[in-house]
């Protein structure tokens, strides 16, 4: 028996469709079954009238640490080095699975409310994060963040933990969860760990999620230690490949851009975190000119401080314009692809999500244009979404054919209960310090 949802009168934002004419879309179970000017309303289980709403693929956040919602506003106005070493790592030492579960649920509420249906996460207690993903109804790529600082015993344990996550959670939640390896960075993961991860990623056909070239300090330390910049080093040890998603990529030489292109490494751009930690400006328009796959991420809520991907895309676009002094770079059309099809490609999910096409998973959002900041309609749907909207204009969120929010009301999660539990968790964590 099929579960069917008909969405009618929608303005579908697909980059191959610039017509701006109203269409209908039929969901059968977890899939987009039909897109047409009119679809028969008989025999459908539910009808959503999307008059005045823009329909687009559920957004894809390719780099975050979802449970870090607990640390929102905890340590502002710091450099990455001090933020991590003096504040975040000491707080994280007291985390447990229950805290990470509630932090991830809080993050899930924020994602659903702002139109993100898929996120790629690197953190601790990932089986608890997987539980939150299952309960929230969203889609995720999960990796355990591995750090060994050169300690061989720790290395074995970290790899075992990530492999265990793969064995217990890959394909979980009706296939909504996929597991990647998550070596934290070239400065916290040893060469042996990175080489082993490469071997295992090939053996198990798993992707790899890693932070690379985020700060100038990281580049200088890498040059001091090895005489090589981070991407030169990663290439030398045979780590790079099309299954690697490198978060940040702020400090890149032209040679490193060539290396990224040669190995088809996927980039996750995180402009708000890079601005807040004063890390720098990633050369995104240059990467795009070089046909490199650039997706978008928020990083954790402690360095952003929110998970609103529409706001992140606007920031990305404006930051490229001001840093290149060229208003034509990173247009609203290009920005939309970063959170949709490019995000899907980065995660190896391009056959399942990232565009509105028959046969793809029904991960869909509706943005309400009947709002002061969206009137009158812009010259294009993408302009209206990227430059005028923000996450609070998202009206409806559907993931895997299931409605998670309708008319701005969550249908699966109890947001007040989650807020109360998250407040209690952070109070306990602060007391433990
Ligand atoms: C080992 S799990 C992930 C680890 O990464 C930390 N983290 C969060 N944001 C950043 C960032 O921008 N650069 C480097 N590390 C980051 C997080 O707190 C966890 O410890
Ligand atoms: Zn990060």
TrEMBL record:
<feature type="binding site">
    <location>
        <position position="65"/>
    </location>
    <ligand>
        <name>Zn(2+)</name>
    </ligand>
</feature>
<keyword id="KW-0862">Zinc</keyword>
<feature type="binding site">
    <location>
        <position position="92"/>
    </location>
    <ligand>
        <name>substrate</name>
    </ligand>
</feature>
<dbReference type="GO" id="GO:0090614">
    <property type="term" value="F:5'-methylthioadenosine deaminase activity"/>
</dbReference>
<dbReference type="GO" id="GO:0046872">
    <property type="term" value="F:metal ion binding"/>
</dbReference>
<protein>
    <recommendedName>
        <fullName>5'-deoxyadenosine deaminase</fullName>
        <ecNumber>3.5.4.41</ecNumber>
        <ecNumber>3.5.4.31</ecNumber>
        <ecNumber>3.5.4.4</ecNumber>
        <ecNumber>3.5.4.28</ecNumber>
    </recommendedName>
</protein>
<keyword id="KW-0378">Hydrolase</keyword>
<keyword id="KW-0479">Metal-binding</keyword>
<dbReference type="GO" id="GO:0050270">
    <property type="term" value="F:S-adenosylhomocysteine deaminase activity"/>
</dbReference>
<comment type="function">
    <text>Catalyzes the deamination of three SAM-derived enzymatic products, namely 5'-deoxyadenosine, S-adenosyl-L-homocysteine, and 5'-methylthioadenosine, to produce the inosine analogs. Can also deaminate adenosine. The preferred substrate for this enzyme is 5'-deoxyadenosine, but all these substrates are efficiently deaminated. Likely functions in a S-adenosyl-L-methionine (SAM) recycling pathway from S-adenosyl-L-homocysteine (SAH) produced from SAM-dependent methylation reactions.</text>
</comment>
<feature type="binding site">
    <location>
        <position position="214"/>
    </location>
    <ligand>
        <name>substrate</name>
    </ligand>
</feature>
<feature type="domain" description="Amidohydrolase-related">
    <location>
        <begin position="54"/>
        <end position="404"/>
    </location>
</feature>
<feature type="binding site">
    <location>
        <position position="211"/>
    </location>
    <ligand>
        <name>Zn(2+)</name>
    </ligand>
</feature>
<feature type="binding site">
    <location>
        <position position="184"/>
    </location>
    <ligand>
        <name>substrate</name>
    </ligand>
</feature>
<dbReference type="InterPro" id="IPR011059">
    <property type="entry name" value="Metal-dep_hydrolase_composite"/>
</dbReference>
<comment type="subunit">
    <text>Homotetramer.</text>
</comment>
<comment type="pathway">
    <text>Amino-acid biosynthesis; S-adenosyl-L-methionine biosynthesis.</text>
</comment>
<dbReference type="GO" id="GO:0006556">
    <property type="term" value="P:S-adenosylmethionine biosynthetic process"/>
</dbReference>
<dbReference type="GO" id="GO:0004000">
    <property type="term" value="F:adenosine deaminase activity"/>
</dbReference>
<feature type="binding site">
    <location>
        <position position="299"/>
    </location>
    <ligand>
        <name>Zn(2+)</name>
    </ligand>
</feature>
<feature type="binding site">
    <location>
        <position position="63"/>
    </location>
    <ligand>
        <name>Zn(2+)</name>
    </ligand>
</feature>
<dbReference type="InterPro" id="IPR006680">
    <property type="entry name" value="Amidohydro-rel"/>
</dbReference>
<dbReference type="InterPro" id="IPR050287">
    <property type="entry name" value="MTA/SAH_deaminase"/>
</dbReference>
<dbReference type="InterPro" id="IPR032466">
    <property type="entry name" value="Metal_Hydrolase"/>
</dbReference>
<dbReference type="Pfam" id="PF01979">
    <property type="entry name" value="Amidohydro_1"/>
</dbReference>
<feature type="binding site">
    <location>
        <position position="299"/>
    </location>
    <ligand>
        <name>substrate</name>
    </ligand>
</feature>
<comment type="similarity">
    <text>Belongs to the metallo-dependent hydrolases superfamily. MTA/SAH deaminase family.</text>
</comment>
<feature type="binding site">
    <location>
        <position position="154"/>
    </location>
    <ligand>
        <name>substrate</name>
    </ligand>
</feature>
<dbReference type="InterPro" id="IPR023512">
    <property type="entry name" value="Deaminase_MtaD/DadD"/>
</dbReference>
<dbReference type="GO" id="GO:0090613">
    <property type="term" value="F:5'-deoxyadenosine deaminase activity"/>
</dbReference>
């Amino acid at each position: 028996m099929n579960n069917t949802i008909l969405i009618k009168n929608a303005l579908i934002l697909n980059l191959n469709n610039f017509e701006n004419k109203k269409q209908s879309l039929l969901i059968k179970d977890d899939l987009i079954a039909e897109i047409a000017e009119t679809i028969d309303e008989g025999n459908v289980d539910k009808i959503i009238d999307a008059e005045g709403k823009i329909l687009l693929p559920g957004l894809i956040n390719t780099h975050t640490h979802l449970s870090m919602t607990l640390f929102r506003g905890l340590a502002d106005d710091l450099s990455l080095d001090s933020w991590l070493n003096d504040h975040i790592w000491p707080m994280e030492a007291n985390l447990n699975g229950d805290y990470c579960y509630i932090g991830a649920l809080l993050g899930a509420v924020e994602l659903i409310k702002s139109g993100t249906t898929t996120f790629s996460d690197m953190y601790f207690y990932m089986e608890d994060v997987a539980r939150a993903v299952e309960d929230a109804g969203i889609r995720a790529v999960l990796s355990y963040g591995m750090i060994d600082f050169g300690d061989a015993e720790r290395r074995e344990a970290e790899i075992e933990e990530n492999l265990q996550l793969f064995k217990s959670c890959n394909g979980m939640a009706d296939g909504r969860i996929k597991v990647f390896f998550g070596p934290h960075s070239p400065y916290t993961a040893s060469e042996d760990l990175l080489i082993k991860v490469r071997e295992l990623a090939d053996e198990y056909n798993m992707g790899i999620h890693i932070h690379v070239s985020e700060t100038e300090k990281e580049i200088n330390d890498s040059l001091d230690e090895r005489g090589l910049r981070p991407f030169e080093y990663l290439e030398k040890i045979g780590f790079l490949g099309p299954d690697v998603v490198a978060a940040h990529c702020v400090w890149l030489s032209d040679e490193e851009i060539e290396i990224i292109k040669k190995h088809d490494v996927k980039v996750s751009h995180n402009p708000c975190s890079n601005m807040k930690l004063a890390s720098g400006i990633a050369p995104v328009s240059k990467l795009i000119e070089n046909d490199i796959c650039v997706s978008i991420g928020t990083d954790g809520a402690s360095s952003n401080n929110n998970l609103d991907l529409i706001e992140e895309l606007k920031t990305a676009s404006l930051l490229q314009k001001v840093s290149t002094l060229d208003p034509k770079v990173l247009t609203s059309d290009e920005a939309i692809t970063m959170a949709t099809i490019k995000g899907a490609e980065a995660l190896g999910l391009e056959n399942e999500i990232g565009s509105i096409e028959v046969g793809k998973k029904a991960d869909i959002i509706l943005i309400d244009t009947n709002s002061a900041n969206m009137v009158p309609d812009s010259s294009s749907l993408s302009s209206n979404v990227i430059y005028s909207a923000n996450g609070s204009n998202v009206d409806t969120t559907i993931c895997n054919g299931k409605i998670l929010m309708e008319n701005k009301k969550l249908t699966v999660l109890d947001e007040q209960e989650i807020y109360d539990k998250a407040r209690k968790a952070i109070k306990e964590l602060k007391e433990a310090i």
